[in-house]
Write a structure and sequence with these properties.
This protein has 1202 residues and is α+β, with helices and mostly antiparallel strands. Strand 7 and strand 8 form a beta hairpin. It catalyses: ATP + H2O = ADP + phosphate + H(+).
Length: 1202
């Protein structure tokens, strides 16, 4: 075998995707397995439990490495920071029942994964199932490949040719056996499974170990109480998980089995249940509403779909059929970003279908089951991506420190008890007991309590979350990207005017609303037909811009009739007709024959329409710059750019309109988009008013005051975006805008980049620009103090990313406006900001911004839906007011997590120190003493401490993001020292008291109160005898025990109060009424225990009577500890000015990439290079070194990456 197994032992699954994993091949060895089984038996199952927690150890011990081709076990590892392992068994699927001979499997399937996976002659397929997705072994490519999807390599024409007639019965059966049923099946997990999984959690296993130890030490009541609490906790968790499981099951079961019609090759149409569908099946979509049971590519006809389940957008979306493009590009590559215009997604609802001349609406099944868009949403809920690795890693480190701390205590315990001649068994029990005290098993749970309460508070405010781990991330956000239309500005646009163009010149503007409507002509026709509106439930539905445009014509949509079109027979098409209030028109109506829906990438839409009885015409609307480029130059006015700038600079949204006549003979469906959208006649500019939402400016001002950057990422015009950014306060009036323009140099592989100050282009003031040399000093002064903002278009961003990679971080540092950005560019921008160590939020709608919302640390979709696949957060409030709300709650949750963490660490340490002190005298805390501290104090505090809400004002700094940060560690260490000091002081001082006796635990009260008890001396003697008897019974009662226990118990209340931070991230502690009530009640009980002389109570609690003065002394000790602890926490730990001074003194520099880059640019007087042009090859090498890690891939040696 040589090197082969090692060489092919490893590969990557889903390379480059969100769920990318490393995969390793292993082969089971019988002798190793036998040894492991023996180990399981000898360790009483402990080894098996360890392997359950660590599946990689199980594989490494049981198996040997081999190539993936030979493997019967594979080990999977996530490629994120957590590097989580999982173990999967390779299964065999037999297809011999359907393939008797080679002729049974058609030649058309030869290039599909299904034929490449079938092993000859056994006719079996090797498969693994990972997170509900099936992967099969490709014999030729030597790798596991996903099934349940139509392969990406098919061209547009191949999809039409190979799948246009449907699959044969045999092909369908083979695919069904390999892919499995087309269901998103989330079975309700049986209670016993949930129970076992929960019980085997390391937390409960540790509890079990502790309980066994406590029973062995006769802590009966305490152990019983912990069992009861653990069972209650397990029951509540299982109940919650079961409820979630049922909810998810009900959410998906409705789509799992519906009747569908498919086309069978040579067999015609066939009705079957949707769970039988496979990729490649030809689906027939009938008229009327239909729920889609799979993802499918539309290959004939047209559909209108409600995609609100996926995107949160309730506007109906028009889908058009995949063109029959005859080229060698894969269909997805050919369609680029617009491929979604041809795809119908699972879980969405088809509300209208329109057949073309071929008679029926057909779609080829693209993805089935969990591979669909809806399946992806369900999988993201079933297998949430772990977040905040730093917090997890720091918690683990802290836990390790506590374990080391416990180990020291164990050594001390062994030494003390062994030297005093205790039995070995007793010494072992006492030593192990130290671990159960020092390491709080509830520590991980404590970190999540704040998140749970925050999620509930957010839900009340109309913000829904499908990824709770991201809530803490929201507390760290320092940059938020906003979409413009519908997010910063109103969704609805008002028509302001139309600037018509005739004979290469702009005419007088037509204002809306006007007494007289637009005159009949090409412009009127464009407004009437160039849209994707439908009539749904009696109302015109569609894009708000389209609705406003169409309403201005006073025409109506007749969506019901079938129309006879010359040469095409009867077809179902949308007809628009004059309404009652419409101006008189010389036509009965206009038929919309074909649509090319709006494309974010192309920034335009077009339709083919014809007047009833007339010739077909094409109408195009879109971004003015794009539309003008598609028009014949002689039809575009010479002052086009200046007029466009005039209106965009005032914040208007401007749309370009164009048209052309088409030949009558050719059917519309046969025309390509390129043919339709060329040699157009420019009609003019439609000017629309896009008003800011009322909440936009105050929210952006609030974020700015909190030092959170706001960035606009929009598909709209650059100048409009700059004006909106200025009006919204994103760019302050005193700051300058620097336009960054990047262009490819014609006829070469290089590119140019230019920086222009936009200050002179203000339309409001017509002053001529001063001479460059005069303005330069003023400009430089403004620019040097970071009072400048870069603005660029998507095209420039793309060129900068490709040719000026080294400049990109510098541009992003002050980039505020990114316009004409496509959905993929939005995602790329968010990722680039993240590379600079920004914590990025993204707020937009669920459709175009879907990718960016998912990539951001916190994506917030403004939608009426409770949850969508689009983003982790969905806000039902239709404004950006949800952003500061989410940041506030995120900050509060983060601080709460840290407070709980500190408290849990301190509580266990206080108890640990108290026990170690008492071990010095071979003593410990009693049964009820432990019970009181753990249940009556800590559990109740743990539940109520997190109730504190978020502080309403956002401060200009963020809470610490790390557990292992100097202030937090110092706080914990100092409070441990205060606690240790107080307990040792109390422990030593009680022994110095004149009434102290090591043997007689009633000496204090008898000596002080003897004269008061003459009347009951016999009773007193009886009590002494009883006490002495009890002392020999349990050995807990002593003056040291009473002193240390009372001090440590009230000390727990002190740290709970001190650590319950209020301002600046949470509301003051007194607003958490429940917590204050609990603390007051607990303190009252503790003081009652300290001052009450109730014999039965003292006997139960293993306390002894001490003189009143000593009790007062203990109260003074506690008061001093509270004062010192509170003072240190406020004056040192929470003193931001002090920490900033220390940072300055020790010249601490932030590790964040953007901060370091900021520092570099502050020293660079030549940045930004105003009114200068650079070329990619002339600057790449010289500037590269300043970026600290960002390089220009165009000029890197290919050998460096090997």
């Amino acid at each position: 075998m040589g090197e082969n197994p090692a060489k092919n032992h490893y590969a990557q699954l889903n390379q480059g995707e969100e769920n990318e994993m490393d995969i390793f091949g292993y082969k089971t060895q019988s002798c190793r397995k036998a040894l492991c089984i023996a180990g399981y038996i000898l360790s009483c199952g402990a080894l098996r439990l360890l392997f359950y927690w660590k599946p990689e150890w199980d594989v490494w011990v049981n198996c040997i490495r081999c190539s993936l081709e030979e493997a019967d076990i594979v080990l999977l590892r996530t490629t994120d920071d957590f590097r989580t392992y999982s173990r999967k068994t390779v299964t065999w699927i037999s297809v011999s029942a359907f393939i008797k001979s080679k002729s049974d499997y058609p030649a058309t399937e030869e290039d599909s994964i299904f034929s490449k996976a079938i092993m000859k002659p056994s006719l079996q397929v090797r498969a693994i199932q990972v997170q509900k997705i099936c992967y099969v072994w490709n014999i030729y490519a030597k790798q596991f490949q996903r099934v349940g999807v139509l392969e990406d390599h098919y061209t547009c024409s191949a999809i039409h040719d190979k799948f246009g007639s449907g699959l044969t019965c045999n092909e369908q059966n083979v695919r069904r056996v390999i892919c499995g049923p087309n269901t998103i099946d989330v079975p309700v997990i049986p209670i016993w499974k949930l129970l076992i999984k929960e019980v085997l959690n390391p937390f409960y296993v540790f509890q079990l170990f502790s309980v066994c130890l406590w029973f062995a030490e006769d802590y009966m009541e305490y152990a019983t109480a912990i069992i009861f609490m653990s069972l209650l906790s397990i029951f509540l968790t299982v109940y919650d998980l079961r409820k979630q499981s049922i909810k998810l099951h009900r959410l998906v079961e409705s789509h799992n089995n519906i009747m569908v019609t498919v086309c069978r090759n040579k067999e015609g149409f066939q009705e079957l249940e949707s769970h039988h569908l496979v990729p490649g099946d030809m689906l027939i979509l009938k008229e009327g509403k239909t729920l889609l049971p799979c993802d499918a590519i539309l290959v004939s006809g047209q559909c209108t779909v409600n995609e609100s389940m996926l995107t949160g957008e309730s506007i109906p979306v028009t889908k058009i059929h995949l063109p029959r493009a005859d080229n060698f590009k894969a269909w997805r590559e050919y369609c680029a970003e617009d491929y979604k215009k041809h795809v119908l997604f699972c879980g969405t609802e088809v509300i209208q279908t329109k057949a073309d001349d071929r008679g029926v609406v057909k779609a080829v099944v693209l993805r089935t089951g969990f591979s669909t868009a809806k399946g992806d949403l369900v999988r993201s809920i079933l297998y949430p991506k772990p977040m905040n690795f730093k917090l997890y890693r720091d918690a683990l480190r802290f836990l390790m420190c506590l374990i080391a701390f416990a180990a020291i205590g164990m050594i001390y315990t062994v030494c003390v008890f062994a030297l005093n001649g205790e039995e070995t068994g007793e010494v072992v029990k006492k030593a192990l007991d130290v671990i159960t005290i020092a390491v709080p098993p509830a520590l991980p749970a404590a970190l999540t309590t704040g998140i749970i309460y925050t999620q509930q508070r957010l839900k009340k405010k109309g913000i829904f979350c499908i990824s709770p781990q991201r809530i803490n991330m929201c507390g760290q956000l320092n940059l938020v990207c906003f979409d413009k239309t519908g997010t910063l500005t109103e969704d609805g646009l008002d028509l302001w005017g139309f600037l018509p163009s005739e004979r290469n010149c702009f005419q007088d503007i037509h204002s809306f609303p006007a007494d007289h409507g637009l005159p009949w002509g090409p412009v009127f026709k464009a407004l009437a037909v160039c849209h994707s509106l439908i009539v749904w439930e009696g109302k015109i539905q569609g894009d708000p811009l389209d609705v406003k445009m169409f309403e201005a014509t006073n025409w109506v949509i007749d969506d019901s009739s079938r129309h006879q079109i010359e040469g095409q027979g009867s077809t179902c098409a949308t007809v628009v007709r004059p309404g009652l209030k419409a101006i008189s028109a010389p036509v009965e109506g206009i038929i919309i024959l074909h649509q090319f829906p709006f494309s974010s990438a192309l920034q335009r839409m077009s339709v083919i329409a014809q007047e009833i009885g007339g010739d077909p015409q094409a109408f195009v609307k879109g971004a003015p710059e794009i539309v003008a480029m598609l028009c014949r130059p002689e039809t575009v006015p010479s002052n086009f750019e200046s007029k466009l700038l005039l209106y965009t600079a005032q914040g208007f949204r401007v749309i370009g309109l164009a048209c052309k006549s088409l030949q009558a003979g050719k059917p519309p469906a046969a025309l390509t988009r390129e043919e339709v959208e060329s040699d157009l006649t420019f009609l003019g500019l439609l000017i629309m008013e896009n008003r800011l939402k009322r909440e936009t400016k105050p929210v952006l001002e609030e974020l700015s005051a909190a030092c959170i950057r706001s960035v606009m990422v929009t598909g709209d015009n650059l100048q409009t975006a700059i004006t909106v950014a200025k009006n919204a306060g994103m760019i302050p009036p005193t700051h300058r805008v620097v336009l960054v323009e990047a262009n490819k140099v014609p006829g070469s592989f290089s590119a140019s980049i230019t920086w222009k100050s936009l200050e002179g282009n203000k339309i409001e003031d017509y002053r001529s620009m001063e001479d460059d040399s005069q303005t330069e000093p003023g400009v430089r002064l403004a620019l040097r103090s970071s009072q400048y903002h870069f603005a660029m278009s998507g095209k420039s961003y793309q060129i900068v990313a490709q040719h000026f990679r080294h400049l990109l971080p510098k541009l992003l540092l002050n980039g505020t406006v990114f316009a004409r950005m496509s959905p993929s560019q939005k995602s790329s921008l968010v990722e680039e900001f993240q590379k600079l160590d920004y914590f990025v939020g993204m707020c937009g709608d669920g459709a175009n911004d879907c990718g960016a919302l998912k990539v951001a640390h916190a994506g917030i979709s403004l939608s009426e839906q409770e949850a969508s696949v689009a983003s982790p957060f969905t806000s039902q409030m239709p404004s950006i007011a949800c952003v500061p709300e989410l940041i506030r709650e995120g900050r509060a949750a983060l601080v709460t997590s840290f407070c709980m963490f500190k408290y849990m660490a301190l509580y266990s340490t206080i108890q640990y120190l108290g026990v170690l002190l008492l071990y010095w005298q071979l003593n410990s805390f009693g049964n009820y003493q432990f019970l009181f501290q753990d249940l009556a104090i800590t559990t109740i505090i743990g539940v109520t401490m997190s109730f504190t809400g978020a502080y309403p004002k956002l401060v200009p700094y963020r809470p610490p993001s790390q557990l292992i940060s100097p202030p937090l560690l110092l706080s914990v260490v100092l409070n441990i020292l205060f606690s240790l000091g107080m307990q040792i002081f109390g422990f030593v001082m009680v022994q110095e008291q004149p009434w102290y006796s090591k043997t007689n635990i009633h000496s204090a009260c008898l000596s002080v109160n003897n004269h008061e008890r003459n009347s009951s001396s016999s009773l007193g003697l009886h009590r002494v005898e009883d006490g002495a008897h009890e002392q020999t019974d349990n050995g807990f009662k002593s003056y040291e025990n009473t002193t240390v226990w009372l001090l440590s118990t009230i000390n727990c209340l002190i740290v709970a109060l001190v650590f319950s931070k209020g301002k600046p991230f949470r509301q003051p502690i007194y607003t958490n009424y429940v917590f204050i009530l609990v603390l007051t009640g607990q303190l009252g009980i503790c003081l009652f225990l300290m001052f009450a002389d109730i014999d039965d109570l003292y006997s139960k609690m293993d306390l002894v009577c001490t003189p009143t003065m000593w009790r007062v002394s203990m109260v003074i000790m506690l008061a001093v500890t509270l004062a010192v602890s509170f003072l240190v926490e406020e004056a040192v730990i929470e003193n931001r000015a002090l920490w900033l001074l220390l940072k300055k003194t020790f010249r601490y520099r932030s590790k964040s990439h953007y901060k370091r880059l900021q520092h570099v640019l502050e020293q660079d007087s030549a940045w930004p290079p105003l009114n200068e042009t650079f070329f990619s090859d002339s600057v790449a090498v010289t500037v590269e070194g300043n970026t600290g890690g960002h390089s220009n891939p165009t000029f890197d040696s290919s050998e460096d990456s090997l």
